[in-house]
Amino acid sequence: MDIDDLLAMVENPTRRRILEALVNGPSYPLRLSKELGVSQQAVMKNLVLMERNGMVASYRESSSMGPDRTVYVPSAAFTLVVDMQGGMFSVRLLPPSDEDAEEPEPMRAEEAMERITEIDDEIRELERRRSELIRERGRLLSAVGGADEKTERAEIPLRR
């Protein structure tokens, strides 16, 4: 999926809410409709569109409460970064982390939650540091741009 297709998929708030629900576990349209407070028709329309574009996949599951139902799961993993500040506009699609990474060792739920908190803290610190670097980049571009402007003005002869 290219960046334009991806942006088109995630620009819609309902689709973002559906994806947010699905990354927490497989679900079916009726449950998503109830959880999100969105009509089942709107949920289905967006699921079909996202499946057609490779964002979600579906499979049939038997239900003890009635007929088989279609269950949806995310089928794409990505990080999308959009920067627009300080003389910089960039849209980048970062590859997902290595799926073949080694399996984590079994641990207690409490230990896992502590580690997740540590990871979240590290991510926030990296994002803060990234913002600092982008601001510094913008200041440097402004300084260089300002210096170039002053140089150009000094080199332009005044007409009288």
Key terms:
single chain; 160 residues; alpha+beta; Arc Repressor Mutant, subunit A; two-stranded antiparallel ribbon; two-stranded antiparallel sheet; extended; disordered C terminus
In brief:
It is built from five helices and four strands.
The total tally of domains equals 2
The total strand number stands at: 4
Strand arrangement within the widest β-sheet reads 1-2
Envelope shape: extended
**Uncertain stretches of 5 or more adjacent residues:** 151-160
Description:
With 160 residues, the protein is of the alpha+beta class. The protein folds into two domains: 3-74, Winged helix-like DNA-binding domain superfamily/Winged helix DNA-binding domain (Arc Repressor Mutant, subunit A, Orthogonal Bundle), CATH 1.10.10.10; 79-155, no CATH class. It is built from five helices and four strands. It has helices at 3-10, 13-22, 29-36, 40-52, 109-155, and strands spanning 56-63, 66-74, 79-85, 88-94. The strands form two sheets. It has a two-stranded antiparallel sheet with strand order 1-2. Strands 3-4 form a two-stranded antiparallel sheet. Helix 3 packs across helix 4 (40-52). The protein is extended and about 70 Å long. It starts with a helix and ends in a 5-residue tail after the last helix. Residues 151-160 have low confidence and may be disordered.
Show the helix and strand layout.
Elements: H1 3-10, H2 13-22, H3 29-36, H4 40-52, E1 56-63, E2 66-74, E3 79-85, E4 88-94, H5 109-155
Antiparallel strand pairs: 1-2, 3-4
Helix pairs in contact: 3-4
